[in-house]
Amino acid sequence: MKLLNPGPVSLTERVRRALLKPDLCHREPEFAALAARIREGLQRVYGGPHEAVLLTGSGTAAVEAMVGTLVDGPALVVANGVYGERMAEMLRRQGKPHEVVASPWTSPMDLEEVGRRLPRFRYVLAVHHETTTGRLNDLPALAALCRQHGARLLLDAVSSFGGAEIDLDGVEACAATANKCLHGVPGVSFVLARPEALARESASPSLYLDLRHEGIPFTPAVHACYALDEALQEFFEAGGWRARAALYAARMRKVSVLEPLLAEGWSDILRAFRLPEPYAALHDRLKAAGFVIYAGQGALRHEMFRIAVMGDLADEDLDRLVSLLPGTSGRGA
Ligand SMILES: *Cc1c(COP(=O)(O)O)cnc(C)c1O
Known about the structure:
By secondary structure, the protein is α/β, with parallel strands linked by helices. The chain has eleven helices and 14 strands. The longest helix has 18 residues, at 29-46.
């Protein structure tokens, strides 16, 4: 089965084999060395002074730990999809003062409104790649606004980390996960944060999801760490984020044969297409042929579906997928 959902991804054999490495106690020096190598690798993906903190859990755990630990003043959430709205919900549950600048899911971030409100906020929270629609939000423009107003930018980079350009220079911290563009397995996620941010007193209402623990306080997903370590080695050997972004772009060119949902601003990581037939029929037909596509969310569920090109996919897989999509030559071949 080839997974075309935005994580978990189809694994390479190399990463899958890493799951069979020897049993390991997380209190032994071997695990400390493994964790240190992973943290160093994550830091090296985009460079900069940011330090990596590993968490056990999915991407949402990393976002929630980032928001919980670092937000200690009024926060402005910029939302144009499910994941921006989720960060606002986290702040609400954490009882932290915030406002939301929302735009329709099919529109870009409302930067004019962000600029108007920004002087009153110390933090800005945004999603880099909004997986709801496959939009790559304008990080350079948002980072410039934050810099201008002296606000700290916290980024959900869960579905773009490793697969698109991220200039961490204007970013206080970002959260991401092992099992999307880095091609690891679910179970480990992480936050990359400026050392100053990690040095401040924690604002976390949660014990478990506090970034400011010393060492390795809780039982980590050891095997998922083995897999992430291997996936990072594979990632760097292949040429890092630039090579991965180029690979995704080439894959997306191949599979973009249907009408896209967005008129502009789409990513090469995941794209939303208008449904050419009812979702269930399309999904079931493709699944029978070995492909898992991804449904739309919310009100968009009846309008569109999504294809992500992360993970281990061969050119032949993509050619076969295209031949199965309606309106393309060779359908049913
Ligand atoms: C996948 C994703 C998450 C986290 O989802 P999990 O299911 O918790 O891994 C958060 N934000 C974005 C933008 C995502 O694509």
